From TrEMBL:
<feature type="transmembrane region" description="Helical">
    <location>
        <begin position="256"/>
        <end position="277"/>
    </location>
</feature>
<feature type="transmembrane region" description="Helical">
    <location>
        <begin position="150"/>
        <end position="169"/>
    </location>
</feature>
<feature type="transmembrane region" description="Helical">
    <location>
        <begin position="119"/>
        <end position="138"/>
    </location>
</feature>
<dbReference type="InterPro" id="IPR016570">
    <property type="entry name" value="UCP010361"/>
</dbReference>
<feature type="transmembrane region" description="Helical">
    <location>
        <begin position="181"/>
        <end position="198"/>
    </location>
</feature>
<dbReference type="InterPro" id="IPR018584">
    <property type="entry name" value="GT87"/>
</dbReference>
<keyword id="KW-1003">Cell membrane</keyword>
<feature type="transmembrane region" description="Helical">
    <location>
        <begin position="47"/>
        <end position="67"/>
    </location>
</feature>
<feature type="transmembrane region" description="Helical">
    <location>
        <begin position="383"/>
        <end position="401"/>
    </location>
</feature>
<comment type="similarity">
    <text>Belongs to the glycosyltransferase 87 family.</text>
</comment>
<feature type="transmembrane region" description="Helical">
    <location>
        <begin position="315"/>
        <end position="337"/>
    </location>
</feature>
<keyword id="KW-0812">Transmembrane</keyword>
<keyword id="KW-0472">Membrane</keyword>
<keyword id="KW-1133">Transmembrane helix</keyword>
<feature type="transmembrane region" description="Helical">
    <location>
        <begin position="421"/>
        <end position="440"/>
    </location>
</feature>
<feature type="transmembrane region" description="Helical">
    <location>
        <begin position="343"/>
        <end position="362"/>
    </location>
</feature>
<feature type="region of interest" description="Disordered">
    <location>
        <begin position="1"/>
        <end position="21"/>
    </location>
</feature>
């Protein structure tokens, strides 16, 4: 079989990959907007470039998500608890405006709160985001309900900007595959969960970090990962895939730059708060350590079905062991696979493992995986199967909360909610399975079918292996097993 010429994605043909020529689901869906990409189409002839289309689409979906929250915005957040669940429009944002002291002008981490919480339980950069939104809300004077509405609107505007950043960065990460980011822009779970909490800040920073890595800017990638970790813990996990991939390719300087940037940026954000308000700064870490089993986790199913209580300390240990075992397995896979896995593939697998084994799964956690899934497995069928499971879980948790908070017991009973959790887990594990298959059978990887190596890999793209567990060190990773020749126009969909 012919071997693709060794070259990086940056030097290959820059023509865009048209999903409607390779993906039968995308081809069928394209009939709504004029049909598949034609043979004589000129992608650069219109002012509506792929990145612009994707950004506008993402903003439009975000706006639809805001419309979905209208019943809560108008009244349900303020008139009892069950109505915001039956309308599936719950958000932490207006509740924490009051519950975490922003309405009273308290300073996060410094001023003590009333009740059991004592201090804000969010990472420092997220706390700053919440505080900035509170300052921007000050000009809107009125009763408490009006101020809560304005606080949510201000946060929604800032999170919409994060959504635009997320869409643009994802579209630019794979130079020849910008349309893969349409998976992010049109993700139903993005619209439904974008304004539940502040996770989009960390997601956008992580997407920007992956873009920097794809352009070979390791230090900038590390800085952005450090900032993302200062907003949410999970982005720190991406250093693990970078470690094993750089190990296999011998790119230690690039990994060292990324690690240095991540640690430095995290310290720059956290040390001032750590020194000025150490007790408040520790709250995020103590809260997550002491938090018990909560909604969305398979641990909850175990406790509900067995009637056995698992303490927070015990589930912390069990969860950590599962994550370490799975991480070790992913590392072995990365070093022993017939061809070096792509960065996005390993990043998706590791974050998915963290989510699946966690003691809590809030509905907005799906945002962590959406851009990683679009880069790791850009196939509409698999993506929509997973999204369908996540949408059903989104509805399931609110109906379950309606059932438990309503005196009439109207909603989804415990057994139904457990089924929703299983659906969420099954959808996530299904996507993990097809990504694993792509790693073990690289000829099935949709990104590599045109001869590409790792468009999001930066210095790893086209690099030779210097260490593998399969005894092939020194072999050119880019020329590793491929059943296709150089880039061709595939025409009909292939799976």
């Amino acid at each position: 079989m012919p071997i693709p010429e060794k070259t990086t994605s940056a030097h290959r043909d820059r023509s865009e990959v048209a999903p409607t020529r390779q993906d039968e689901v995308a081809a069928a869906g394209s009939e709504l907007v004029g049909g598949r990409f034609g043979r004589w189409a000129r992608p650069g002839a219109s002012a509506l470039t792929p990145v612009r289309v994707i950004a506008l689409t993402a903003i439009g979906m975000f706006a639809l998500g805001m419309v979905q929250k209208l019943p809560c915005y108008n009244w349900a957040w303020f008139r009892g608890t069950s109505s915001q669940y039956t309308h599936a429009c719950y958000s932490d944002i207006p509740h924490l405006f009051v519950g975490r002291g922003f309405a009273d002008g308290l300073v996060p981490y410094v001023d003590r709160l009333g009740g059991d919480m004592q201090y804000l339980e969010y990472p420092v950069l997220t706390g700053l985001f919440m505080q900035v939104a509170s300052w921007l809300t000050l000009p809107f004077d009125g009763d408490l309900m009006y101020r809560e509405q304005m606080y949510w609107l201000v946060n929604a505007a800032l999170l919409m900007a994060c959504t635009a950043v997320l869409a643009v960065c994802t579209a630019r990460t794979h130079r020849r595959r910008p349309w893969d980011a349409l998976l992010v822009a049109l993700a139903p779970a993005l619209a439904l969960t974008a304004t539940i909490n502040w996770d989009l800040l960390a997601v956008a920073l992580t997407a920007a970090a992956m873009l920097m890595w794809s352009r070979g800017r390791a230090l900038a990638c590390g800085v952005l990962l450090g900032l993302a970790t200062a907003a949410k813990f999970y982005p720190f996990l991406l250093l693990g895939p970078l470690l094993v991939l750089c190990w296999r390719a011998g790119k230690w300087r690039a990994f060292g730059s990324a690690l240095l940037g991540a640690v430095g940026a995290w310290l720059a954000v956290n040390v001032p708060v750590m020194l000025l308000a150490p007790e408040g700064w520790r709250k995020f870490y103590s809260f997550n350590r002491e938090r018990g089993i909560d909604f969305g986790s398979f641990w909850l199913i175990i406790t509900q079905r067995s009637g056995t209580e698992i303490t927070a300390g015990a589930v912390n240990v069990y969860g950590m062991l599962l994550v370490l075992l799975a991480s070790a397995g992913i590392a072995v896979l990365a070093l022993a696979a017939p061809r070096r896995p792509r960065f996005a593939q390993l990043a998706f697998l590791l974050v998915a493992v963290f989510i699946v084994t966690n003691k809590v799964y809030s509905p907005q956690y799906v945002l962590w995986l959406i851009p990683l899934a679009a880069l790791a497995r850009p196939r509409w069928r698999d993506f929509l199967i997973w999204q369908g499971c996540e949408v059903l879980y989104f509805l399931g948790i609110w109906m379950y909360l309606a059932y438990t908070s309503s005196g009439e017991k109207q909603g989804l009973p415990t057994e139904g909610y457990q089924f929703a959790i299983v659906l969420h887990l099954a959808g996530t594990l299904y996507l993990c399975a097809v990504v694993l298959r792509d790693i073990l059978m690289p000829e099935r990887d949709p990104v590599r079918r045109d001869g590409s190596d790792d468009p999001s890999g930066g210095v790893l793209d086209g690099a030779e292996d210097v260490f593998t567990l399969g005894g092939s060190a020194g072999r050119d990773s880019y020329a590793a097993p491929m059943l296709q020749g150089p880039r061709v126009d595939w025409g009909a969909p292939r799976e």
